[in-house]
Amino acid sequence: SNRKVTFCKRKKDLIKRAIELSRMCNRQVSLLLHDPETGRVVHYTSTSEFTLVEGHRAMVAAKEREGAFEQFTDDDYDNLCSLDFRGVRYKKKVANNSQFLDQV
Question: 26-30, 79-83, 86-90: which has the highest mean pLDDT?
Fold first, then answer.
């Protein structure tokens, strides 16, 4: 079916992007894809040491630290597409600097 073909193409691209993210940013990446219809699971991890268990431990630890955990769902799609992360960081920096200047 068309969905299977689309899934195969997008899966390959998603895994390639995960590999690029891991290599270019020196980050551990874990990706899990599950097809509820067939029960098939595809798992990618950037290193053999970074298992799903290790990823879960890292997530639990990050949830305990303020600002260290981000989670996204399909509901976040429109917001993610409209954000310019570089601009957001720059605006935060400018806002922080102007706050600092106001205090001086």
Answer: 26-30
Give me the amino acid identity at 18.
A
Residues 51-74, buried b or exposed e (16+ Cβ, 10 A)? eeeebeeeeeeeeeeeeeeeeeee
Q: What secondary structure does DSSP assign to 34-97, as a single string?
A: E-TTT--EEEEESSTT--HHHHHHHHHHHHTSTT------GGGHHHHHH--HHHHHHHHHHHHH
Q: What's the pLDDT tens digit per position in 21-51? A: 999 999 999 999 988 888 899 999 999 888 8
Closest CA to 16 of 34, 36, 31, 35: 31
Q: Quote the tokens at residue 58.
A: 């890292």
pTM reported for the whole predicted model: 0.66
